[in-house]
Design a protein that fits this description.
The structure holds 2 protein chains of 2 kinds. Chain A is an alpha+beta fold. In chain A, 59% of the residues lie in helices and 12% in strands. Chain B has 2 domains: 3-57, no CATH class; 67-182, Sandwich (Immunoglobulin-like). The chains are: A alpha+beta, B alpha+beta. Chain A binds chain B through residues 1-4, 50-57, 60, 63-64, 67, 70, and chain B through 45, 48-49, 51-52, 55-58, 60-64, 66, 86-90, 182-183.
Chain lengths: 152, 183
């Protein structure tokens, strides 16, 4: 029973922390973020396993963590409101060419990030070439370029 | 290769290592296998859920169905223990002993049982340990007014499989209990 309870509590705790930290927290992994992720996994490991390093405990924990994930994905499918709570929703950063400065400030995204996404995904070089930019649930930025004006 | 075999066979090598083109996509579609996989996944989910339910209930480790108490037939001692353990996972034997009139209390543990477990700590600490052929005797000092003595043995099992416990106090009946250690 302990293994399942520990797994559930850790899942919820980590979910709360990352939900509060925001979508962008680990979306674009820098070298330091990668190291941070390793440190987080090392720290949670001790709490998860307790003093019990047995195979049974490990298997039960993996089943609990992944099982919660599978169960929640089913919940989200049948109850769409849950998805908003659990994963958040996409946020429009550039709407018909206009930047939403407030949204970008709150989500800690700047023009640089949008431009980087525009370069990588669409090969766009300037902000005025972007029709829409969206901060997705996953924390990544997607970009839709402006249509070429009629005639071209 | 004949010319008329063209469209549907494009890209198929001599040994057939490249998949055929169907509906404009060069990909081998194996829906029968896919459906079989889906079905097995559903079965897997059921087993998965049952495993977690068994774990919560205490059939795979600690939990309500794992907690048990064994009592000596003459009431000299009661042992609270866990039926299902994890190998090298910590557990506790909680002993409630009716103390006699002497100022020491002798607890006897079967050597067979001691071979299967590693004793981490005993509360309170015994005054003396006497090693014997088949038994180890722990001697505790007893407070004169104590009617019951509570002893906690912290231990972890060393091997997986069955574990047969046998404890007794001097002059009392033996308490036997059965445990199972998961890997």
């Amino acid at each position: 029973m302990d293994s399942v309870v520990r797994g559930l509590v850790t899942y919820v705790a980590v979910w709360i922390v990352f939900r509060i930290a925001g979508k962008r927290t680990l979306a674009q992994i820098t070298t330091f973020d990668a190291v941070l992720l390793l440190i987080i996994s090392e720290t949670t490991q001790a709490a998860l396993l307790g003093n019990d390093n047995s195979i049974t405990n490990t298997v039960l924990l993996v089943l609990t963590l992944l099982g919660t994930d599978v169960l929640l994905s089913e919940v989200k499918r049948w109850w769409p409101a849950a998805e908003k709570v659990l994963d958040g929703c996409p946020l429009v950063l550039i709407d018909r060419g206009r930047l939403d400065k407030h949204a970008m400030h709150v989500e800690r995204v700047d023009e640089e990030d949008v431009l980087a996404a525009a370069r990588v995904l669409q090969g766009l070089g300037r902000l005025d070439e972007i029709e829409y930019a969206v901060l997705e649930q996953s924390g990544g930025i997607t970009v839709i370029p402006k249509r070429k004006t009629a005639g071209s | 290769m004949p010319q008329n075999a063209a469209t549907e066979q494009v890209g198929v090598g001599e040994d057939g290592e490249a998949p055929p083109v169907s509906n404009g996509l060069q990909l081998e579609r194996r829906m029968t296998f896919q459906r079989l996989e889906w079905r097995w996944q559903r079965v897997g989910w059921a087993v998965w859920f049952l495993t977690l339910a068994a774990a919560v209930a205490g059939l795979l480790g600690n939990g309500p169905l794992s907690d048990a108490t064994a009592t000596a037939s003459d009431g000299s001692m009661a042992v609270e223990y866990e039926r299902f353990l994890h190998r090298q996972g910590p557990s506790v034997l909680s002993l409630l002993i009716r103390s006699g009139s002497s100022d020491t209390l002798q607890l006897r543990i079967d050597n067979q049982y001691l071979r299967g477990v590693k004793i981490e700590r005993i509360e309170p600490e015994p005054q003396q340990t006497l090693a014997g052929d088949a038994l180890q005797t722990l001697v505790f000092a007893r407070a004169p007014e104590a009617e019951f003595v509570h002893v906690r043995i912290h231990y972890s099992p060393e091997h997986m499989g069955e574990l047969a416990g046998a404890l007794s106090v001097a002059g009392g009946e033996e308490v036997r209990f059965w445990q199972f250690v998961y890997p």
